[in-house]
Amino acid sequence: MRIVEATAEHLPTIAGIYADVVTSSPATFDLEPPDLEAWRRSLDACDPERGRFLVVALDDGGAVLGYAKSGPFRERAAYDLTCETSIYLAPPARGQGVSGPLYAHLLELLDASPLRLAVGIVTEPNPASVALHEALGFERVGTLDGAGIKFGQPWSVTLYQRSLL
Questions:
Q1: Which residues lie closer than 8 Å to 161 by C-beta, 6 or more apart?
Q2: Using the 8-state DSSP alphabet, how is residue 11 labeled?
Q3: How many Cα atoms sit within 13 Å of 20 on the Cβ side?
């Protein structure tokens, strides 16, 4: 497995991974998958000086196994040194040891950036995501009960934070 910065050629697979999560899981509160143009804008917004990254894990043949990204936590200027992180894997890559190295690589990039805090938001229940965040140094800071409605039911989210170096 190789972990590299995403390029335009990876975007269709990234979009497909996320579309699957949007339509089948409460892990994200998006109700409709973003189109490919939205992913192009996300890639164009990558900027190490602002702590904006999009990285992919590739198998030996170059196929995308999953991606991790960082982006704005909130749009207000006082939050500029805080980012929100996320990670999503293609179904065949889940449980195969991809998420730890992929998310750790994103955090290494963030540690070298000017940012000071990473925030991960986990829809409950998701014991695998909780374990991943805790293994990589995130601390639980609180739960918002019933914060989102998806698939006709309320879902709670737990916020995790990790200081950046």
A1: 117, 118, 119, 120, 138, 139, 141
A2: H
A3: 11
